[in-house]
Specification:
331 residues; mainly beta; Methylamine Dehydrogenase, Chain H; 4-stranded antiparallel sheet; 1 helix; globular
């Protein structure tokens, strides 16, 4: 009888994560200083740090201890944080300053402020194929391209619409949601031109985006229809639309577990399973907290992190001393 029970239990431990039951539950919250608004979260996998945009500062959390370890301050109104481990530099999009602020990933010290020609830089990513940093500028419908070594702007991409989140395939293309055009731009990083534009219908008002590079699929969270559009990047066709919560902002994909996460302002994270490249299933509606709309995924631990604060009744104004990061783990 012992063998009957021991063998399947051992075998279950050897099963890949994508084959196991996958349910997310609340683990803890991490209190952070400051009372301003919040936006993107980013993870530095090399240095095990979480960066949380927070009004005019960035809160920094050690992911090993899950405790705050620093603040990057004296900013004007920030949105996102991009990580370039090759140069040991981080890049912050300071929307109100129309600039990119550069800091040292080890010391968190500010290195430089790079003025750009774009207005209101919002999303920001590091693109490894050409070793460049791209900001996506909400008020100028453009992307500013910065050399992370010289810290100079080296190009501009005209996008043809209002940009939201973007993701690189690491092979020479960036995929960027255009919120006001209900479509997806494909940017050629060599020519700095939009090489294609794909409609996301029935999706509308796309914000967050993630990518399964191996299968050539992008996942765009769309607010207008409360749906996630799955696009085949070879054909530009939407092959599936999945129901998600209201007020989606961020989207993340875990290539090991094959789970897609859509964090929504209605206090939910819709978790979707990629069964294969063309088949998807909603497996969980995770309850979080109202207005916990932004998120980062740690692909090492498979935890997700969402920033949020308590707010005044019928208001978006944060209550003092309530800002935190919510942590959810996979069981």
């Amino acid at each position: 009888m012992k063998k009957i029970f021991l063998i399947p239990f051992f075998a279950m431990g050897l099963m890949p994560l994508a084959s196991r039951a996958q349910t997310y539950t609340y683990e803890k919250s991490i209190a952070l200083p400051g009372d301003a608004g919040w936006d993107y979260l980013s993870i530095d996998k090399v240095n095990d740090r979480l960066y949380v945009s927070h009004g005019n500062a960035v809160n920094v959390v050690n992911l090993k201890t899950e405790q705050p370890v620093g603040v990057i301050g004296d900013l004007k109104g920030i949105h996102g944080i991009a990580i370039d481990n090759k140069a040991n530099r981080g890049f912050i999009s300071d929307g109100k300053a129309n600039a990119i602020v550069v800091f040292d990933l080890k010391t968190l010290a500010t290195i430089a402020t790079v003025p750009i020609d774009g207005k209101d830089p919002d999303c920001i990513i590091y693109e490894p194929y050409t070793d460049r940093v791209y900001s996506f500028n909400g008020d100028s419908n453009s992307s500013s391209v910065v050399d992370p070594n010289t810290l100079k702007q080296v190009g501009t991409v005209e996008l043809g619409g209002g940009p939201e989140f973007a993701v690189s395939d690491g092979k020479g293309n960036i995929y960027n949601n255009l919120e006001d055009k209900n479509s997806l731009d494909v940017i050629n990083v060599k020519s700095l031109k939009v090489s294609a534009n794909y409609p996301l219908a029935p999706g509308g008002g796309p914000t967050g985006i993630a990518m399964d590079i191996k299968n050539g699929r992008t996942f765009s969270g769309c607010r207008a229809n409360k749906g996630m559009s799955v696009t085949d990047i070879k054909t530009g066709k939407v092959i599936a639309t999945l129901p998600i919560g209201a007020g989606v902002d961020a989207v993340a994909f875990d290539p090991e577990t094959k789970l897609i996460f859509c964090s929504c302002g209605d206090g939910t994270v819709t978790i979707i399973k990629e069964e294969n490249a063309d088949s998807y299933t909603v497996v969980q509606s995770l309850k979080t907290q109202n207005r916990a709309r932004t998120m980062a995924l740690d692909t090492k631990t498979h935890k997700i992190y969402l920033s949020v604060a308590e707010t005044e009744p019928n208001s978006r104004k944060a209550l003092p001393g309530t800002f935190k990061v919510l942590v959810y783990e996979m069981k």
